[in-house]
Structures are given as C-alpha cells and as structure tokens.
Amino acid sequence: MKLMVCPLNGPRAITEFAYGGAVRPMPDPDSCSDAEWSDYVFNRAGSPGIKREWWCHIASGYWFIAERDTARDIVVGTFPPGARDAPA
Amino acid sequence: MFTRHDSLRPGYEAVIIGAGGHGLAAAYYLARDHGMRDVAVLEKGYLGGGNTGRNTTIIRSNYLTPEGVRFYDESLRLWQDLATDFDLNLFYSTRGHFTLAHTDAAMRTMRWRAEVNKHLGVRSEAVDAAFVKRMIPMIDLTCAGHAPIVGALFHEPGAIARHDAVAWGYGRGADRRGVQIHQQTEVTGIRVKAGRVVGVETTRGFVATPKVLCAVAGSTPRILDMLGLRTPIYVHPLQAMVSEPVKRWLDPIIVSGSLHVYVSQSARGELVMGASLDPYELHQTRSTLDFAESLSSHMLDMFPFLGEVKINRQWAGLADMSPDFAPIMGITAVEGFFLDAGWGTWGFKATPVCGKTMSHTLATGRNHPLIEGFSIDRFARYQLTGEKGAAAVGH
To answer: What is the ipTM of this complex?
Structure first.
C-alpha cells in the first residue's frame, strides 16, 4: 500500500494521508445505556478484514472514506464522504 | 532442546494458546510453582517466532503510574536471576536507560516519572544535558540544531537481553517439567458450554480443557471473535531494524519520544533501533522504506557520525494496542478463559511477571493483586490506567 486514490485529488503517495479510524455509527447518547456508550467509546473490531475507515488528504484537508483489506495491505476503494453507503 | 510429541492428548488441565515468551513463562510457572504439569502450549507457527523474537529487547521499570511501576519492577527483579533458573545464558546486560527530554514540558514529565519511581523504590533520576554528554560522549546535544536535549530521565537498572533465549529457557524449563509444547498447531475454535470453557478446536483435532490462556499478541482479536468477546484492542505493525555490526561505542540504551527513536548496541555490535507504531491498522508484517528513512534521519540528528553505517535488516511485529497503553489481563466474562493481551509495544520486559501473575490467576481462578489495574472490565467502568511511560510515546 504505497498509493491511495483520493476522491478529490487522484492518486497520491500514502504519506500524504492521515488515518482517521473506522467508520462507526454513534448510539444516541441521550437514550443509550452506559454499557452501550462505553462499548462505542472503547471497543473496536480488531480482527483482520475489509475495513471502512475515515482518511484525510493532509495537503488539501479533505476527509473521505476508504475501504482497506487489513490482511493483504491493499486499498479496495475510496469514496467521497457523502457516498458512505457505497457497496463494499 | 524440546520434546517432540506426535499427538495431542484428548484433554489437559489447561491449554495455553501461543508459544511466545508470555505463554511459555505462564506454562513454566504453572508447572514449577503451582504443580500444574498437565498443560499444553499450542502454537500456530514456531516457538518464539512472534513478537518475542521481533522486539528490541529493552528491559526497564521507569513507568508513570504506580500500577505500572510496581508491575514492571517485579518483572525486573525476576529477570535478574532467570539465567540461573534456566541454566542458559540470556546475555542479560545492565546498561542504564536514558529517556531524552527535548523540551521543558518533557523535562517536567521526566521529573514526575523520577519521583513516582523513587517513591516506589525504583532507581530513576532526572539528569541535565551535561550528564547525558558525559555518559554518551558521541551524542550531538543539539540534535542537528532543531531538537536540543535539555535533560533526561536516567534509569540505572535499564537492561537488554537475548529475546530468543528467553523463549527457549522458559520453553525448556516447562518441557522438562512435563508441559507439552505443540508447534504448528493452530487453534480454530473455543468450545463453551453454559458460559464455561470446555475445550479448544485445533487443526489437529479437539482437545478438552476447563482452562484456556490466550497469549497471542497481534492475533488476540481473532481468538476473542471465537468467543464473541469485545475489547478495545486494535492492531498496528511496529517496525524495527538493525545496523551492520560496528565497534562498541554505545553503552546505555537511549530513547527519545520526540524524535521517535530507541536504540541500543547489541553484544555483537549491531545498533538495534525502533521508532513508533505504523500510522494505520494492519495485520501484516511488511517493512516500509518510510520507516527506515525517518528512523535513520532521526538517528543522524543524534549521531551524525553514523552516516556511512549500513542497515542490515528490517522487520515488523503486530502490536495489540490498548487505548490507555496498559495491558488487558486476567479473568474474563467466559469462565475458564484467561487473557494476557494488550501488550502493544511494551510486552517483552514484562515476560517473567506476566508468566508469574497469569499462572497464579489460572491456578486460583482469581486475578493476581499485581494485575488488578489491568482487568478487561476497567473500560466499562471508565477507570483507565493511563500508562504513558510506554515506549516512544510523546507527552
């Protein structure tokens, strides 16, 4: 994984990007239980697989969604944030 | 060195997943101190082939939280007579350990760590730049002008040891006491009945057991998925590299959190170097040029005369990180399933004390007092153990 295709700027070196963590739905803090909230705050899906993540192209400050295979070290696809529900 | 067993027994008193330092140490102390010898250690690869053989072998106890300092200091004590225990040369070498401070804020943290350490009887001192220069004459105190060293935390008992020998010593000690070590035996499932462990599925068949210890570092989430247990553990690669062997010039171990470097010189004369975690989640041990470049450039900031020295080897291990830089250890929600995980980038030095405390926990079914601050349920209680004395962590 040496290149990533930024949806705004095209293919760029991986060093131009910052990893922002997995895309995770936030439970409603007003109605969820303490257990649900601590699960959201701390717990992660740590096994290898295809992950949907936030990434940022640092030079342009542009945030987008990337799908990566963390077992094979490849980028499967990148999407603008509005296309968050793009097929895996 | 080890007995080769043709087949697994149908059942064991306890099964340990992972024949790295931690798993083998637990097996050793279970057999030696708790009389539990009907134990199998299952390893999907080869003995000591994971993070045990991939770390940069630094041993120290100059941590920040009282929980951390007490725990690592007990480990340091255990290290010092292991070679006699094993009748095996571990090349344990006390060098002294410097954590460099490049700013006043970092110096304040060093004083804080020194005071916590001294309060708990651990030899650590905040020292000035002149002391650093006296102990490490080859260092450029200005760090090429952009990160001048203002002082350091000096931890006299800091040491290095030969990491493979640690796994071999614990493995042989356990083997001689009747523990069975099975390499190339992967655990593919864990059988649970009414909330209790009843056995493990392996690539060589089912094994019945009431107790399972999981000591698999970067593979921890994969094992926990088999049980539906959720943890904050995330896996990033940690890379390291060594230079060609050169004449001995560096006695102490040096760490700079700001420059992201830790370095020591091995008995063979190689410079053993590491930096910080790779910046994104990955379950693969590839090496990158970015790592070698940035680490080399920071090494040259401190030691410009190394410009002609070549890099010999580069490799990576999978670090199971926790959000508070403290491990996740002890009993879990599944009865009979014990965890020794979340060791991220700081597990090697803790090998003996992890073996001691986990064997106690396995034998008695209750967490050892030294690991109470590391239990898995601390996250649900929001009681984190903020251990920022971890390697290469800036403050």
So the answer is: 0.93
